[in-house]
Specification:
Number of helices: 7
Strand content: 25-35%
Distance between the termini: 28 Å
Strand order of the largest sheet: 3-2-4-5-1-6-7-8-9
CATH architecture: 3-Layer(aba) Sandwich
Radius of gyration: 17 Å
CATH superfamily: P-loop containing nucleotide triphosphate hydrolases
Largest sheet: 9 strands, mixed
Oligomer: single chain
Number of domains: 1
Shape: globular
Number of strands: 9
CATH class: Alpha Beta
Order of helices and strands: EHEHEHHEHHEHEEEE
CATH topology: Rossmann fold
Bound molecules: adenosine-5'-triphosphate, magnesium ion
Amino acid sequence: MVLVAGPPGSLKSSFAYRILYYEALERGAKGLYVSLEQSRESLQNQAQSLGLQPEKADALRILDLRQLRRELRETQGPRDWFTGLAAQLARYKEEMGIELLALDSLNALYALTDVQEPRRELFDFFEDLRELEATTFLIGETPRDGSFGPFHIVEFLADGIVHLHMKEVEVGLTRSVRRYIALVKLRGVKHDLDHHPLIVDKDQFEIVGE
Ligand SMILES: Nc1ncnc2c1ncn2[C@@H]1O[C@H](COP(=O)(O)OP(=O)(O)OP(=O)(O)O)[C@@H](O)[C@H]1O
Ligand SMILES: [Mg+2]
């Protein structure tokens, strides 16, 4: 389970979508992208603007909030979102298999749920997610100050944390924003801790090394 954290517009969705897309395209890996913030069309448009061809990745399904609401109503009526979503994901796993999963975003899920005991409920939800035995990307929006915001418990529970962030730089007389990517945590792996510049353009997602 990997937390993909970053401020608005830092390419969190694009980063996770891109991984699921290429896994589906190249290996036929079954992926499910749960998009609670953006509609399916909006996510696909963003992917297209980055040079991907969503219609080609047959094994990747996108479930957006509208469709999820409809399915949850049909199967179990109003319930709390953590339990409802976990049950729905288990059903998907059984019906079609899920090798890779993206949940976009934790913030949206928090907003939909009336959380009584956040730590315990999240803990239980994570247990349910682990039972899916899928490589899971959890997307979390962080405040611009660089902290991880409301995800402290997620930081402990996640096996890995990818931090996408942006920094203002002076370019001549103007200011611009540069993108960076850092691997903050990856259990069981000795990895570098550098913040690498991330260059994104149509058809290119380049992490700049030394
Ligand atoms: N063709 C492109 N080349 C480079 N960057 C692009 C291109 N198209 C869109 N972008 C950038 O992608 C950003 C949005 O990416 P994405 O939706 O993945 O970010 P996010 O971190 O998920 O944002 P949010 O917090 O709003 O969900 C835009 O703000 C824009 O700067
Ligand atoms: Mg997003």
